[in-house]
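quick one before i forget lol
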Amino acid sequence: MPNSPDFKAWASERQERVEGVLDRLLPPEQLSPAQLHQAMRYAVLGGGKRVRPLLAFAAGEIAGAEAAAVEPVAAAVEFIHAYSLVHDDLPCMDNDSLRRGRPTCHVAFDEATALLVGDALQSLAFQVLCEQEDVEPGRRVEMVSILARAVGSRGMAGGQALDLASTGQELSLPELENMHIHKTGELIRAAVLLGARVSGMLAETSAARLDHAAKCAGLAFQVVDDVLDAESDTQTLGKTAGKDARQDKPTYVSVLGPVQAKRFAVELRDEAWRALEMFDDKALRMRQLIDFIVLRRS
């Protein structure tokens, strides 16, 4: 299904759409401070599958939102994702030199600039959410709150802290899941919830089912990431392969083994699909995206 021409055309159109929005919202590279703005554009516009924006668009379709209304949300979550990658690659974190097939931001520019790039992209994401003129103010506040919780100490940043603390440690499967529910899963869940919230049309029960599907998708994304890090190569991934094992990080592969890890990803996919049953054909793109997450090779 994720390889069907219909899905590829839909994904390509949405990717082009969000690419234009990102380009428009980022400061021009000539604007002072020029090096910071050049580095921001380098970090955001340097490729990527745009999975999180695509999830936002797919959730918007479930809730009946027009694609144009979802664009600011798609851009905001991608700004947050790009900032997290820039900081994740820093010497004080994972100390990586390759991202999306190019030198990481701190290598292409310098460490201080990369730190500021992350700071600036995070603030830009919240600015974009606050300035959605077609969304009534109360809902804008709610959406800002959703994203803030997803990236803070009880979300993505907290998950990164758990990841750093776990290096060289043996984690149980529940401990590993808790770490990645926060580090990877929270932003994916936020992308889905924000895409659906633009229209304000989802009932509480529907939102809960969609959130559960997003939680499963977030975990599946990390499981597949761990498998690819162990089994793929640097050229295919566009980032340094085998890094987890060299840094002695607990992963789904180290805890479950590669065969069981792949099986677990499929189980998460099936659980996500069950959560989406109530949405019928409106969840077609979401189902296709979850399949893409599980079946991807990079």
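fyi Residues 5-205 form a domain with the Farnesyl Diphosphate Synthase fold (CATH 1.10.600.10).
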